[in-house]
UniProtKB/TrEMBL annotation:
Its EC number is 3.6.4.13. Keywords: ATP-binding, Cytoplasm, Helicase, Hydrolase, Nucleotide-binding, RNA-binding, Stress response. GO terms for cellular component: cytosol; ribosome. Residues 5-33 form the DEAD-box RNA helicase Q domain. The lineage of its organism: Bacteria, Pseudomonadati, Pseudomonadota, Gammaproteobacteria, Alteromonadales. One of its GO terms (biological process) is cellular response to cold. This is ATP-dependent RNA helicase DeaD. It comes from the Bacteria.
Length: 606
């Protein structure tokens, strides 16, 4: 029988081994055991693995082991789809490198001051973790050089493809030295990712970690047949479950705020996490969650990408994801790299087909659970009260209160238990112990939602029984919230395409592609519709963002600009290849003649 793999047996440096030990890593995960030896030998690696398998350490530890700290130039470049993941990966590198002198790590992402990034580049950061848009800005400005680059990592390549960044990724790869080590990690392997592998990698070693061996198998997964009373239900589940930290996933940014406010009113320490928050606010929220000051975060998929917090042991899918990969990424926030967790999925009747897709894709057993009863919740509340009383009895002198209670019992002619019961009745006015038994039945097909239930009202394609099995209807701009039209100083004659504009806006402002409205290309400028009341700091930032080597110079147009017509607007050749969710795909225009560059909009809370 072969000896079990340990970090000590992987030939990592003593400084890195010490850092790994201090972080509490016991034994390598499967992907770490397979990738680390290959990367230490400077081989290219193509990794097919889900989130939560420990792949950050799988590439970070060996690449860090191979760099020369005396060379004050970028030696490792990691590309990530979102700023959250960039920050998370950079923090991991810093933890692994804390015992290695002279190593500096820098995260480059939109929303952070250029001065901070330029200062770190001048100091000679050897490890760069970046989002594509901000990195291209630095390349165009000439503020970053790759002459000493040894290794390039594409992390979550399929997600970068889905978000429309894959052309930017190829552009960046063309700017790097041909002789380097390349690593590509992806949960799926669509054709465009395979093409990148064939074009830019040198005989890569393939590492495939199946879903059964990854996050999915370490997470207990259950589903609840959701009723129209999802708000009441989530309070029940959060009270009944045992967890340190929890993350609740919803579809829209507006929902994160409303649900966080609801949970705070119910006594939970809760906060939203979404793309409308500036970077500092999001970082504060994550730090509060890590430190235990916050127990529940309500997040969108984009904002939670790359979130790795040890305390997260519960994931609740308040809104079911539209695709199975998003589900795997969601539950990957818990059960990471050897830890265990639990995931609860709210499934409405007309969403059962999505549940079937998830079960088939993950090859998982997802059991049905009932809503926690009032009795279960009451028992939890009583147990919590008993714990508080125990602490009070151990740490406080209650002699005075004993005397007051004895006098009250004598004057009121009450038995001690009657007095205690009356006091508890008064106390529960602030923190109720008794739970009202509300009948929360799964929603029937013909049942309509009450108007005052936040966001539980189904979309048009979700109403009407078996019709929900069909492909969801595509939305158009009539479904969107108020939009403003902005002018961008880049047009056809500069070589711009719709996907360039979508990628820049999505990456720099963290606006999901579904919330970007009509884009119209003109000869020397373009126009784009974005949600009303964009923050001033975001608009100021767009003045400095480059597209096709030109500053965007984004400005709000006059009111009549929304009705202007482009001079000529044929759909670019490759436009049909843009990667979006099914609901976000542009409608085909069946009319003859030139077609407008249009994108559907969905910026309303569902």
């Amino acid at each position: 029988m072969s000896e079990p793999v340990t970090f000590e047996s992987l030939n990592l440096s003593p400084a890195i081994l010490k850092a790994v030990e201090e972080l509490g890593y016991k034994t390598p995960s499967e992907i770490q055991a397979q990738c680390i030896p290959l990367l230490l030998e400077r081989k290219d690696v193509l990794g097919l693995a889900q989130t939560g398998t420990g792949k950050t350490a799988a590439f970070a530890l060996p690449l860090l082991n191979n760099i020369d700290p005396s060379v004050k130039q970028p030696q490792i470049l990691v590309l990530t789809p979102t700023r959250e993941l960039a920050i998370q990966v950079a923090e991991a590198f810093e933890q692994y490198a804390k015992g290695t002198r002279g190593v500096e790590v820098l995260a480059l992402y939109g929303g952070q001051s250029y001065s901070i990034q330029l200062s770190a580049l001048r100091r000679g950061a050897q490890i760069i973790v970046a989002t594509p848009g901000r990195l291209i800005d630095h390349i165009n400005r000439g503020t970053i050089k790759f002459d000493s680059l040894q290794a390039l990592v594409l992390d979550e390549a399929d997600e970068m493809l889905r978000m429309g960044f894959i052309d930017d990724v190829e552009n960046i790869m063309e700017k790097t030295p041909r002789e380097k080590q390349t690593c590509l990690f992806s949960a799926t392997m669509p054709k465009q990712i395979q093409n990148i592998s064939s074009k830019y990698m040198n005989n890569p070693e393939q590492v495939h970690i199946s879903a059964r061996n990854s996050t999915v198998s370490s997470v207990e997964q259950v589903f609840w047949n959701a009723s129209v009373h999802k708000n009441k239900a989530i309070v029940r589940f959060l009270e009944a479950e045992q967890y340190e930290g929890a993350i609740v996933f919803v579809r829209t940014r507006n929902d994160t705020v409303q649900l966080a406010e609801l949970l705070e009113r119910e006594g939970f320490s809760a906060a939203p996490l979404n793309g409308d928050m500036n970077q500092q606010a999001r970082e504060r929220t994550v730090e509060r969650l890590k430190s235990g000051m916050l127990n529940v975060v309500i997040a969108t998929d984009v904002a939670a990408r790359g979130l790795d917090v040890d305390r997260l042991s519960l994931v609740i899918n308040y809104d079911i994801p539209q695709d199975s990969e998003a589900y795997v990424h969601r539950i990957g926030r818990t059960g990471r790299a050897g830890r265990t967790g639990k995931a609860i999925l709210f499934v409405k009747h007309n969403e059962r087909y999505l549940l079937k897709n998830i079960i088939r894709h993950t090859n998982s057993d997802i059991a049905q659970v009932e809503l926690p009863t009032a009795k279960i919740v009451e028992e939890k509340r009583i147990a919590a009260l008993q714990a508080k009383l125990t602490i009070a009895l151990e740490n406080k002198d209650i002699t005075f209160f004993n005397e007051v209670a004895a006098n009250m019992a004598q004057k009121l002619e009450l038995a001690p238990e009657d007095l205690a019961g009356a006091l508890l009745c008064l106390a529960q006015q602030q923190s109720p112990i008794k739970v009202e038994e509300v009948k929360i039945q799964p929603r029937e097909r013909n049942e309509r939602n009450p108007r005052n239930e936040r966001s539980d009202r189904g979309r048009r394609n979700e109403r009407g029984g078996e019709r929900a099995e069909r492909k969801p209807r595509e939305r158009n701009s009539r479904d969107a919230g108020p939009m403003d039209t902005y002018r961008i100083e880049v047009g056809r004659e500069h070589g711009v395409q719709v996907k360039n504009i979508v990628g820049a806006i999505a990456n720099e402002a963290d606006i999901s592609s579904k919330f970007i409205g009509d884009i119209r290309l003109h000869d020397n400028h373009s126009t784009v519709q974005l949600p009303q009341n964009m923050p001033k700091d975001v608009l100021d930032h767009f003045q400095k963002v480059f597209i096709c080597k030109r500053p965007m110079g984004m400005t709000l147009t006059k009111a009549e600009a929304a009705s202007e017509r482009p001079e000529r607007s044929e759909r670019p050749a490759g436009d049909k290849k843009r990667s979006f969710n099914k609901d976000d795909s542009p409608r085909g225009d069946k009319r003859s003649g030139p077609r407008k560059e249009r994108r559907p909009v969905s910026f309303t809370a569902k």
